[in-house]
Amino acid sequence: MDQRRFFIGVLFVSGIFVPAFGDPP
Hints:
By secondary structure, the chain is mainly α.
């Protein structure tokens, strides 16, 4: 299991979707 890829993927997706939803950091 590549937990690193999963974690990076979550951060990468979150970094895209969070701003997309308009949620301030």
